[in-house]
Amino acid sequence: MAGSRNQTFDDRDSSLIYQGTWSQGIIASNITVTTTSDPNAIITFKFPIKAIAFYIYGFPGAPDNTFGICIDCPSGTSTTQFSPFHDFNAPVDEKTPAVLYLRNFSIPSIHEIAFNPHSQLSIDRFELAIDPSTPTQIPSPPALSSSLASSLSATTVLSVPSTPPQPTLPVPSTPPAPHAPAVPVAAIVGGVIGGFAAVLIGLAAYLWCRRRNRERQGDYVRPRRQNAWIVPTVHENKPRVKNAWREAPAVSTIQRRILKRRDGSIIHTEGEYLETVSIQIPGHLGRTLTNSGSGGVIPRREVDAGPVDGTEVEILPPEYEQVFTNHRVEEITPPSQSTGEYRVTKT
To answer: Record's superkingdom (predicted)?
Structure first.
């Protein structure tokens, strides 16, 4: 049409939907067609852009063929309700497609076309006449619909249009990554060394304290066990001995060291002073030890309970040399006939 421009949609365009049995072929070197002999075959095309007219190009099977067409019909409309037509232009030759159908519209609009060939027919393309004020719609690349792909013959020769090479775009250079901050190695190493030094100092302090405690314990010398001291064995009846010791006066711990061994020998130890000690023995024993030294008698701290009932009396005092650090030389003089007292000399 005058003042309009045409936009072509090839028979392989994805906007064309084929139903029924169709096959694709090639006429000449640059013409592709989609052919059918199915009387119930349908091709549907919906305008992707507003148009004021459309054209169907192809090759009719025979000059007297009748086709059916339906514009904006509901989906599923039977081919018997299509409008028949047969006044199409005959092709000039076998290699030039003819206009099979055309339709004009008063205003630019979008429509859906359903075309039924009724007999043998080859579709080459659809063309839309577009108003100059309408922007151009880029046609979709050739593609096969699912219904057409399932019904095409495997022996048909297909022509795939070549795609022009795309220009290579320069790849923008990636800016260098910002410099990562340096790891504080010195701080890490210093912390490790400081922690190790703290551990060593704590261990040294622990060992020093332990050694000091051992040295303090080593300063204490445990008194060596000396020969046991005993007192003369006294054989008496149990009640008399028990009561006699309970009635005896208090005796100091120093007086208890004045003993002699079982064999009767006198023990001599080191000392720096001379002292006479008197030990009071119960009266029924007939002997009394007197203290003539300057120190006097030291009162006892405890009262002896006496021997255990049922055993022979044998008095064994504790080892007092383990308690007192002063060592004395002691000498016991047998009792005289007049006084009956033991005389002990300490140096």
So the answer is: Eukaryota
